[in-house]
Amino acid sequence: MIISVNNVNKLGFIDLEIDPKLDLTQVIKKLKVEKNAIILAHYYQNPEIQDIADFVGDSLALSQKTVDINADIIVFAGVKFMAETAKILSPSKKVLLPDINAGCSLADSCKFEDFKLFIAKYPNHQVITYVNTTAEIKSLSDICCTSSNAIKIVNSLPINQGIVFAPDKNLGNYIKCITGRKNMVIWDGACHVHEEFSLEAILKLKRDNPKAKLIAHPECKKPILLISDFIGSTAELLNFSIKDDCNTYIVATESGIIHQMKKENPNKVFISPAPKASNCGCSECVFMKMITLKKIYLTLKYELPEIVLAKELMDRARLPIQKMLEISK
Ligand code: 13P
Ligand code: SF4
Fold it and tell me: What is the dihedral of CA 62, 63, 68, 70, to 10 degrees?
């Protein structure tokens, strides 16, 4: 098969047979050096991908890292909005996403035309968008935020300032409650992974493990947040698991983070609650899990698929991201 930009664009990833005996970890390491490439991975990636990455982090740390990266190529082991953010912050670098279909149900819940009409109804409001959005949505925003810094970003605005917060309604309502904002309008979007956690299943896990602490990502629904012992971004949940002295944790976020939790705390127990619609015993983001070692290898080899965005769009979308990074320092 001939690899061309067109057929990769059609499929979204490179579909080639490889020698099953190939040691993917070794060839990826070699290609990284040859091409002066670096692999950034989100905590929700599969363990073997986290282990070959040069840097693993949450959305905020990954975007901060992008700014001062010394490499020609960034391979993003994450989802499209993260790779777009990397491209926007480092436009001169080649940013590769091993599967362009690695989207995000939360970003998909906020479409450009709908959002434009929505914010037009609130002309005096500041528009704060979670980074889990397309570059087009960022171009309509005043400031971006992540789950790590959302409270700080909202608190950076005067208390009576009207705010539009998008796209995650669970995170938005949580932040509204914590910051005591009265004038905050929240977009009705959600992430399929965090929406799917079953309160009943979590209550049963708590009954079966009475000493366990429930730690949750703020994208979870309110009833789950209300019974949580700690709420935070993936990085904050990881740090809590290190500093806290409990032995068992019920982890209400994507199960990929448990890899780092176990690495940091080999003697502790981490339980991933099953989502409502599944009996697989874990909660996985289908988009995050589209990235595989094989796709990373082929992406590095052929330098495709690449994130390409119009300069004007990047220039506009960069402003709210830079504002966020400035406030987060
Ligand atoms: P973090 O901000 O914790 O990295 O979360 C990213 C994400 O996709 C949550 O679903
Ligand atoms: Fe998007 Fe949810 Fe997957 Fe995060 S876990 S990338 S918010 S779909």
Answer: 60
